[in-house]
Design a protein that fits this description.
The chain is mostly helical. It is about 55% helix and about 0% strand. The protein has helices spanning about 25-30, 50, 65-80, 90-100, 120-130, 135-175, 175-190, 200-205, 210-220, 225, 240-250, 255-260, 265-285; strands at about 15, 80.
């Protein structure tokens, strides 16, 4: 809260809110005596010795001037803000936040929303936090604008990276890209994932690595051959070259790790392909 408190130190320090010092204004104007070398005002004679020689009192020419100066000093003191100690209770800090201009309730904060959004759960969650921390309206708004900008930049970088990865994959696969993408789409749908993403799988997935994963999954389950017009439909179909599929799977480190860890899907896939490869070898004899 250094901005809100103007850099004042904690532990009983005071923060001026535009008032002059106690020695200025009406108080200073009321004092006419006490110039260097001048005689002490007459009214001081009725005071005890320790007060009679006080330099501050000698500035006032009479009791009326003293009274006016005292009133002005109290006015200035009341316009100063005492900053609580760092370990002060929340109530003490809340009084400071309110005096500085914190809204009286969280819903009074004007929190800008991300571009294109009419509502934001993040903004709704931020308002009570901003109020608890004692943020001024401008501070809360500034933080929200900074956060929205960071999120926009992060999202833009994410999509740019995804497009770059997909572009690299297209260059790598060349003419085979569209056929492999169609096979990945068929696999995606067969897995029961949201169909609205399937038509633009490469854009919706948003990552070349994930797109590669769906292509490999399609190849491992026979979907690529089905799309090309060879083999049966569905996961587990298209076992005509089961031995080649097994070779591809054994070359996949992540698949081997799953198999070695006892993954039931990987084990079933291995058994199915082994049985198909054995049957194919028997037919070829």
């Amino acid at each position: 809260m250094s901005e809100a408190l103007g850099g004042a130190s904690a532990g009983g320090a005071e923060l001026g809110l535009g008032a002059a010092d106690a020695g200025s204004g009406a108080g200073a104007g009321a004092a006419s005596g006490g110039e260097a070398g001048s005689a002490a005002p007459e009214w001081l004679g009725g005071l005890p010795d320790e007060l009679r020689g006080d330099a501050t009192l000698s500035r006032y020419k009479d009791v009326e001037a003293l009274a006016r100066g005292h009133i002005e000093a109290r006015r200035i003191a009341s316009s100063k803000l005492a900053v609580p100690a760092a370990d002060a209770p929340a109530e003490a800090w809340n009084a400071v936040f309110d005096q500085l201009g914190r809204p009286d309730s969280p819903d009074k904060y004007d929190i800008p929303l991300p571009q294109g959004q009419e509502a934001s759960p993040v903004a709704d969650a931020f308002r009570p936090i901003a109020h608890q921390l004692g943020l001024l309206p401008g501070q809360a708004k500034g933080l929200a604008e900074f956060w929205n900008g960071q999120m926009d930049a992060t999202q833009a970088a994410y999509f740019a990276k995804g497009e770059e990865e997909i572009g690299a994959l297209k260059s790598e696969l060349g003419a085979d890209y569209e056929a492999k993408k169609a096979a990945a789409k068929a696999t995606y749908l067969k897995l029961g994932l949201p169909p609205e993403f399937a038509d633009e799988l490469d854009q919706k997935v948003g990552s070349g690595a994930l797109m590669r994963g769906f292509i490999k999954l399609a190849e491992a389950t026979g979907e690529h051959r089905r799309v090309d017009g060879d083999g049966e439909a569905g996961l587990g179909a298209g076992l005509e070259n089961a031995e080649a599929q097994l070779t591809a799977l054994y070359a996949d480190k992540s698949w081997r790790e799953k198999l070695n860890a006892g993954d039931s899907v990987a084990a079933a896939q291995q058994k199915r392909l082994l049985d198909a490869a054995k049957a194919q070898a028997t037919r070829q004899r």
